[in-house]
Amino acid sequence: MNLFNIFSDIEKLDGDVAERVDYYTRRNLFKLGRKAATVAAAPAVLAASLNDAYAQTATVADVLNFALTLEYLEDEFYRTGLATASLIPAGDQAVIAQISKHEAAHVALLKGALGTAAVAKPAFRFGNAFSTYQIFLASANAFEDVGVRAYKGQAPSLLGQTVLTTALQIHSVEARHAAMIRRMRGLKGWISDPAEAPAAVYAGEDNTTQAGVVLTSLSNVTGIDAARSREAFDEILTKQAVLAIAANYL
């Protein structure tokens, strides 16, 4: 969910991040063999690359531990939901369990990169998120949408870097999580209502201007009203906004 944040922050600390990670990624791919070059193996290879490239400097460890805390939150949320008796209907168990495995893989990536410097999982406060299945799904919806919007907020910092492809591979899976959860709630697979709650998660989703173009003014395109203009494009969340949202659960 948060690899864009990780690489953006590392880039600010180390301008040579692209070349450094690229070198060690190639070396680890060679060591781990052809099988490691698959998409499924990318997180493990990248974790090994970060270990080799940075040797766990204190500053980078702080950045990675911040991301790890956010991943802990999602991982704990789905684990708790699956362990709560009579919460998730039998027909939805497999989907939620698979999403949970994906989040566990994200935690494993960061813990592997940090080694002994990894912070322990904090205690989270989920409030009434597990009181009913619909509240659970609404909470999952918000978490997933936060993650997807956070990726886009950091994307400009990754342009031209070799790590962009790996980050996009993970980002696309998180977007599928968000769409799946929405469909399970009986909603469209994309954000269609800018007034969704929590308000902080969907701030800015009423935007109808992209790349300086006011979409509702395109009279030569049929059906481009305000609703379609909003739905066709996702907005970003800044790092500061993501931190403010996450703080509610710590």
TrEMBL record:
SUPFAM superfamilies cross-referenced by the UniProt entry: Ferritin-like
Pfam family, one: Ferritin_2
Source domain of life: Bacteria
InterPro entries: Ferritin-like_SF, Pigment-catalase-like
Protein name: Ferritin-like domain-containing protein
Organism name: Fibrella rubiginis
